[in-house]
Amino acid sequence: MGCILVFIYVDDVSGLNGDNAIAVLYAAKKYDLPELVDWCLTFPISKLSNIFLAFDQTRFLGEEAFACCCLEHIDLNADALILSEAFLQSDQKLLCEILDRDELMISEEITIWNAALRWADEKCRQNGKEPSAANRRAMLGPALFKIRFPLISQEDFENIVPSGVLTDAELVSILQHYSRPDRALPKPYQLKFPTNGRAGTNSDTDNSFVSFAANLFP
């Protein structure tokens, strides 16, 4: 890699940028270049081209402090970052980890759903599959159950229903939760989705949603 050769011969890191910083870090550790490693680890996190992959890869490389800084940046800027193209490059395991976080500064949980659906559609495209309800659900896998549907307002939730990604039993369980959150449900209708709020989310239940659910399940 040209950036590494320039550093070795003339001690110049001007070629380090948001696109190559993590790849250079990997190579610097591989070839035992501690000074270059230090330069990479002081690269501004906000300038990394893909903060999600940077988090995942630096953690793999054992650079826990840098990885934690990446994760904090994701938390604080989640509203914008999960709408980015970089988010779509995450694998399913990383998607699960990100969507599972209480610390995400998300203004509305519907943003999580929309981002997850975009991610699923991109994975369908990459795998040559139609973005059908079944394929979207399959691509999301366990990540679907990291989405906090009970925090979503009635108006937004009504727009989710036609996607077909949620089963009838899951829809019933969510509506029942809003109607009577303390009520024990039969096993097929037990709620599978988290109900705790995120750092930036207004978790107050929409009163109209409670009324809507109560009418369905008296």
TrEMBL record:
Give GO terms for biological process: neurogenesis
Q: Which domain of life is it from?
A: Eukaryota
Give the UniProt keywords, A-Z. Answer: Ubl conjugation pathway
Q: Does the keyword Transport apply?
A: no
Query: Which residues does the UniProt record annotate as the domain BACK?
Result: 52-162
Pathway linked to the protein: Protein modification; protein ubiquitination
Q: Indicate yes or no for the key word S-adenosyl-L-methionine.
A: no
Q: What SMART domains does the entry give?
A: BACK
InterPro entries, per the entry: BACK (IPR011705), SKP1/BTB/POZ_sf (IPR011333)
Pfam families associated with the record: BACK
The UniProt entry's GO CC annotations, sorted and at most eight, read: cytosol
Q: What is this protein called?
A: BACK domain-containing protein
Organism whose genome encodes this protein: Globodera rostochiensis (Golden nematode worm)
